[in-house]
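Deliverable D2.4 — example input (structure tokens):
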């Protein structure tokens, strides 16, 4: 264990987790001239269970940082409109073309490419450091204040002290558990089986939804293969396993005839991962010296694919509020409470909309039950009104009360960031 004396604390912020929330917070704080260390337990970002959707609100944030052009140079596909049909036959139109934005589309980018991009941009700032293969184990608490954390890597356990420790370690957050923050859980009615099937080059769709009695699936184009999310009623994975792989393959072929010719590529259950869908929120996102953001503060259901964008908006607001107190070296719980105050309502409305969609669409599909008619009828009427008709698209594109970058660019970036810069960056703690 490497002990660091309190007098040596030069680190403004230590972030557990380099998902969308942690990576963006690291970038923004380093850009504002602060010293920030991000710890990521995996050795790379190559995990296929991450979402891939970067919405207009996030591209606008990248634009405010002068990064939109470079981001859009990454291999990606753009979707400008989507139509979702509810089980009662109501078509909900998500046309982003009518929205006031320079980026009226969802960019589909494999999340590992997106995180590599953000981490590389962050590495251009001298105050940024990212350690991969570094698993956060504990928070350091002294006199009721979180003073930093311990993490484990191949060399053993290390201690890091920082003025602020941020938990951006996702929905199974170790740090929020360590901080003893109360979790309020809701119960989405579904889980997701996550697997791939090969994709033919001439297959056109970038994203597709298929549903049939008692089942639904989403197909995401990952160029060489389809990433498939097969939605099942919560807790039904054991039943599927008991019925056996041949039965699963038959069901798939019926549900998604487009890929019926290759369902045999699934040879064993190991190829099919169970993703437990969770939705929860912390009653309080902070303690003295500690703040949770992103899924660590509020695990988002995959419905409407907004979790990445919500996590990034948290990072933007956290930096807007905290960069100055962090720079002064005096951060109070009032500052941390301000972050929660600005983000809690948008997040709660988002989760409520997701719960509504789950109720209207997924529960009805998965239980083959009739969806509640009244909300459908009201929705049908409302969506006919010209202004209200754009609400679904606005919700997906921008989220609720989208923030803008208000933190300054006080550090000077180096010109050409490379992956090596990121790995070998030597932070200049001031
Ligand atoms: C099946 C499924 C599909 C989804 N699809 C989409 C989608 O298409 N679009 C969308 O916008 N959202 C989607 N979501 C939601 C989205 O994935 C999350 O809301 C979003 O990733 C949250 O970002 P985050 O940075 O807060 O957390 P995460 O993305 O979970 O990142 C947390 C990071 O912390 C690291 N970490 C965890 N523990 C530790 C530790 N102890 N020490 C160090 N590092 C640690 C993890 O390895 C990870 O890199 C989906 C969710 C699910 C379950």
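Example output (designed residues):
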């Amino acid at each position: 264990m490497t002990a660091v004396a309190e007098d040596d604390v030069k680190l403004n912020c230590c972030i557990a987790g380099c998902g969308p929330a942690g990576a963006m917070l690291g970038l923004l704080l380093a850009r504002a001239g602060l010293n920030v260390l991000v710890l990521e337990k995996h050795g790379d970002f190559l995990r296929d269970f991450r979402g891939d959707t970067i919405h207009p609100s996030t591209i606008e944030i990248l634009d405010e940082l002068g990064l939109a052009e470079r981001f859009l140079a990454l291999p990606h596909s753009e979707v400008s409109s989507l139509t979702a049909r509810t089980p009662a036959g109501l078509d909900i139109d998500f046309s982003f073309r009518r929205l006031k934005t320079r980026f009226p589309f969802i960019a589909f980018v494999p999340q590992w490419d997106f995180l590599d991009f953000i981490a590389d941009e962050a590495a251009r700032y001298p105050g940024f450091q990212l350690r991969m293969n570094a698993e956060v184990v504990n928070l350091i608490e002294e006199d009721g204040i979180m003073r930093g954390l311990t993490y484990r890597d191949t060399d053993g356990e290390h201690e890091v002290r920082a003025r602020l420790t941020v938990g951006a370690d996702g929905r199974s957050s170790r740090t929020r558990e360590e901080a003893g923050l109360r979790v309020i859980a809701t119960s989405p009615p579904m889980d997701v089986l996550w697997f791939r099937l090969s994709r033919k080059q001439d297959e056109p769709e970038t994203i597709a939804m298929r549903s049939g009695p008692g089942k639904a699936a989403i197909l995401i184009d990952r160029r060489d293969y389809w990433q498939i999310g097969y939605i099942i009623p919560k807790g039904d994975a054991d039943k599927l396993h008991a019925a056996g792989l041949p039965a699963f393959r038959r069901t798939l072929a019926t549900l998604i005839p487009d890929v019926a010719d290759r369902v045999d590529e699934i040879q064993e259950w190991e190829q099919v991962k169970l993703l437990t869908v969770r939705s929860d929120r912390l009653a309080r996102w902070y303690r003295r010296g500690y703040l949770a953001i992103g899924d660590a503060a509020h695990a988002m259901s995959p419905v409407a694919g907004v979790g990445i964008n919500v996590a990034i908006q948290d990072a933007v607001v956290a930096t807007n509020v905290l960069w100055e107190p962090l720079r002064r070296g005096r951060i109070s719980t009032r500052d941390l409470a301000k972050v929660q105050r600005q983000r809690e309502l948008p997040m709660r409305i988002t989760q409520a909309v997701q719960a509504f969609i789950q109720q209207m669409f997924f529960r009805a599909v998965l239980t083959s039950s009739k969806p509640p008619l009244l909300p459908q009828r009201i929705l049908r009427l409302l969506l006919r009104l010209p202004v209200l008709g754009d609400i679904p698209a606005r919700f997906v594109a921008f989220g609720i009360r989208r923030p803008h970058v208000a933190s300054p660019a006080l550090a000077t970036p180096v010109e050409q960031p490379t992956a090596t810069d990121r790995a070998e960056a030597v932070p200049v703690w001031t």
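Residues 203 and 221 are 9 Å apart (CA to CA).
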